[in-house]
Amino acid sequence: MSSAIQFSHLSKRFDHLQALDDIDFVINEGEFFGLLGMNGAGKSTLIHIMAGLLRASSGSIKVFGQDVVQDYRATRQMLGVVPQEIAYDPFFTVQEILHLQSGYFGFGQENHAWIGELLETLSLSDKADENISRLSGGMKRRVLIAQALVHHPRVIVLDEPTAGVDVDLRKALWEFSQRLHQQGHTVLLTTHYLEEAEHLCERIAILDQGHLCALDDTKNLLSQYPYRLLCLTLKNKNDVLPPELQKKQLESSGDQRVLRIHRTEDPILQVLDTIKEAGIEILDLKMKEPTLEDVFLKLTHGHRAERI
After folding, report:
1. 3-state secondary structure (DSSP) of residue 52
2. How far, in Å, CA of 156 to CA of 98, rounded?
3. How far apart are CA 283 and CA 232, in angstroms?
4. Is the pLDDT of residue 306 over 60?
5. Would the pTM count as exceeding 0.70?
């Protein structure tokens, strides 16, 4: 499998702040890749270096083998970046800005059909002749996506694409991102919505304070979290769990009890036997698997503890 983006020992320092520290990994061609991290983790700095908006202090980024500094024009042609910030030119209509953006990359009338297709796909056709400044925030976000795709890039970079949008638009953007991936694009997604990354991404890198603290398949990351939640409905809401299980109890409300149990140290049958021996009758039980948020918090907190 060939690499689409290669980060080689990438570092960036701002005065006394080490924004990125020796970041080294590869995103494969055709992959839907997630880049996660809290505010200040270094995600946007990495994206800005890749897009040519910042220079790295050391290291390099290559897009399909071409360096983003030495081969700037070629790499920009291959990258379609949807920025986190909603920035637009207030003097143009939606259609005008797309034609202008297309021209920046050397396209002429031969690209008009593709622009029309983008407008239709992103539900912007009825807004084509409207000034961008008059659009809602969600529609402006769609225009940014159209601008990023207008020059037929091989790699799509989505920097917090659903930040500040409503649930319906978020779902629409999820579906559109999946469609781009199915069409063969390499997609790099940064997001604060961990359920978004869990739903969309095949592989994930986690940044914490400029360091790469995890890189793995999404399923493998989820399997690293050793705990599951056991959700119980008791026949008698006044029943009290045995002391050894109370230590594992996270929630107690009415007839509901939620326990955090270890996959290997707390065999589920043993837990249920302990409850039965205490004379407590269970009406219903459900197991809840860990989420990416659980894994994210475990890894970032553990990584910080190792560096103290």
Report:
1. coil
2. 17
3. 8
4. no
5. yes
Closest CA to 120 of 98, 89, 90: 98
Dump pLDDT digits (tens) for 199-254. Answer: 899 999 999 999 999 999 988 888 877 888 899 999 999 999 999 999 999 889 99
303 — pLDDT class (breaks 50, 70, 90): low
Q: Which residue has the tokens 């930040």?
A: 163
Tell me which DSSP letter residue 120 carries: H
Instruction: Give the Cα-Cα-Cα angle 41, 46, 51 (nearest 5 degrees).
Output: 150
Among 53, 48, 49, 74, smallest CA distance to 63 is for 74
Helices (H), the chain: 43-50, 72-78, 94-104, 112-121, 137-149, 167-182, 194-200, 218-223, 243-246, 268-277, 292-307
**What's the start-to-end Cα distance of the chain, in Å?**
38
Quick count: other Cβ atoms within 10 Å of Cβ 134?
12
If pLDDT is split at 50, 70 and 90, which confidence band does 302 have? low
Residue predicted with more confidence, 47 or 199: 47
SS3 sequence of 139-200: HHHHHHHHHHHCCCCCEEEEECCCCCCCHHHHHHHHHHHHHHHHCCCEEEEECCCHHHHHHH
Residue with tokens 């991102």: 177
Task: Give the tokens for residue 208.
Answer: 């914490």
State the CB neighbour count (10 A cutoff) for residue 147.
22
Torsional sign, CA 191, 193, 198, 199 = negative
The answer to whether 31 touches 4, Cβ cutoff 8 Å, is yes
Q: What is the rounded CA–CA span in Å between residue 177 and residue 211?
A: 27
Which phi-psi region, left, alpha or beta, contains residue 15 (left: φ > 0; alpha: ψ -120 to 50)? left
Q: Would you call 284 helix, strand, or coil by DSSP?
A: strand
Q: How far apart are CA 237 and CA 127, in angstroms?
A: 57
